[in-house]
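Issue: ligand-bound run for iron/sulfur cluster - logging full I/O for the record.

Environment: standard queue, default settings, no custom constraints.

Inputs:
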Amino acid sequence: MKVKKKIKTIKVVADKCNGCRACEMICSAFHASPKYSSNNPERSRIRVIRDPLSDIYLPVYAGEYTPAECMGRDKYVLDGKEYGECAFCRASCPSRSLFKEPDSGLPLKCDMCEDDPSQETPLCVQWCVNEALVYEEREEEIDDGSEALGDMETGVASLVDKYGLEKILDTVARMSASRKD
Ligand code: SF4
Ligand code: SF4
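Outputs:
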């Protein structure tokens, strides 16, 4: 069955980014626990690839978690600027430290600042005074049940990949029993 869904996108106008990293600061503060209690760019779901000597400032959003790194590497040259390997890749992947929660190692993914009540526009967009990040919304028909994994499912999937389903289930059963005691 088809259902209507609001699709939220953020257009990255990389030419306007000056590498100030305000987007990283607000994203990590918003996702701190408790909210706004700290800021650490390592926890941000947007990271800015910076190479000032080559005039490269590229904001990249954390996308899907992947348990396996790809077999090849991409390198792009655009307008004479050479971008590092995987610069445009959004995956939380075993081959690099980007988009992993620094304490737990669990994958990070942009959730468009999910909140209750929801933000009018994502915080990184609000904080980007250079308008390098532009928020857009549209409606699309999608298959019912084809929603992307949320934070919780993504984290559990990565733990299952690392330790195996049986060990995770054992641990949850043990934790739940000890909490009832
Ligand atoms: S806040 Fe805007 S200008 Fe600053 S680093 Fe982020 S995307 Fe670039
Ligand atoms: S939209 Fe929200 S969650 Fe996503 S990168 Fe921007 S501040 Fe972080």
